[in-house]
């Protein structure tokens, strides 16, 4: 199912199936299962702390899918998402000797990913600024027009597909913290309290962040379909 290599302490990733099987059995509450899963994660991580490579492989197998998926939604690029996931698990391995289970394991994992993703988006932003300055320095004629050849023609999409693409585009345009909060809430169905820990924000601040993000998304989608966002 998942190929993992510890050569050089860098896992080799195979993209998981789009839908990760739910571990929750019908007779077990989600809260109980969540506690059980975290206990297993902590048990494995404490083994990794002792240098157990097999435990590390198991953690990679369990969590690489969600790391790649979330990073891909944040960065819009699958190759970059795989790179981020590799860096996440490399940091897990390197920090294992200092690991203490003071927080939920997935919260710790997402916090590492948050830092790496935000660093990458800042690097991209600086690169774009440099490219823009270079273009301006050599712009002796009319502004060049670019056509987006990557988007399929609307008449070849169902309305639902078009709405989903518009929504993902709108999410991608949000500021980093708003985008991550929306991705964690919408795609991972993460509770507010865990999002607070990952973003290092208070509960009112996270709720305000999500409110602003949803307002922007509604405006973007209204404009996309030619509606008045104020109505």
Describe the structure.
The chain has helices at residues 30-49, 53-75, 78-95, 105-137, 159-172, 176-186, 192-199, 203-224. By secondary structure, the protein is mainly alpha-helical. The relative contact order is 0.09. The longest helix is centred in the middle third of the chain and has 33 residues, at 105-137. It contains 8 helices and no strands. The radius of gyration is 21 Å and the shape is elongated.
Question: Short description, anyone?
Answer:
This protein is mostly helical. The protein has eight helices and no strands.
Write the SSE topology.
Blueprint: H1 30-49, H2 53-75, H3 78-95, H4 105-137, H5 159-172, H6 176-186, H7 192-199, H8 203-224
Helix pairs in contact: 1-2, 2-3, 2-4, 3-4, 4-7, 5-8, 6-8, 7-8
Q: State the end-to-end CA separation.
A: 49 Å
Unreliable parts: 1-30, 141-150
Give the radius of gyration.
21 Å
Q: How many separate helices?
A: 8
- The average pLDDT is 79
Count of beta strands: 0
The major β-sheet equals: none
Estimated helix fraction: 55-70%
* Content of β-strand: under 5%
- From the spread of the alpha carbons, the general shape counts as elongated
Structural class: mainly alpha
Order of helices and strands: HHHHHHHH
């Amino acid at each position: 199912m998942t190929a993992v290599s510890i050569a050089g302490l860098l896992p080799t990733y195979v993209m998981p199936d789009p839908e990760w099987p739910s571990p929750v059995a019908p007779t077990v509450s989600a809260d109980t299962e969540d506690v059980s899963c975290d206990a297993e994660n902590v048990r494995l991580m404490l083994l990794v702390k002792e240098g157990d490579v097999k435990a590390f492989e198991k953690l990679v197998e369990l969590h690489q899918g969600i790391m790649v998926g979330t990073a891909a939604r944040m960065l819009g690029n699958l190759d970059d998402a795989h790179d981020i996931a590799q860096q996440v698990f490399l940091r897990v391995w390197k920090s294992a000797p200092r690991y203490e289970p003071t927080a939920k394991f997935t919260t710790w994992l997402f916090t590492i990913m948050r830092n790496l993703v935000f660093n990458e988006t800042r690097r991209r932003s600086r690169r774009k600024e440099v490219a823009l300055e270079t273009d301006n320095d050599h712009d002796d004629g009319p502004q060049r027009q670019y056509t987006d050849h990557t988007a399929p023609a609307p008449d070849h999409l169902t309305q639902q597909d078009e709405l989903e693409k518009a929504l993902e585009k709108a999410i991608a345009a949000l500021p980093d913290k708003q985008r991550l909060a929306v991705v964690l809430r919408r795609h991972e169905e993460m509770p507010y309290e865990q999002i607070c820990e990952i973003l290092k924000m208070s509960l009112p601040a996270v709720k305000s962040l999500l409110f602003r993000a949803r307002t922007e998304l509604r405006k973007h989608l209204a404009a996309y379909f030619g509606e008045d966002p104020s109505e």
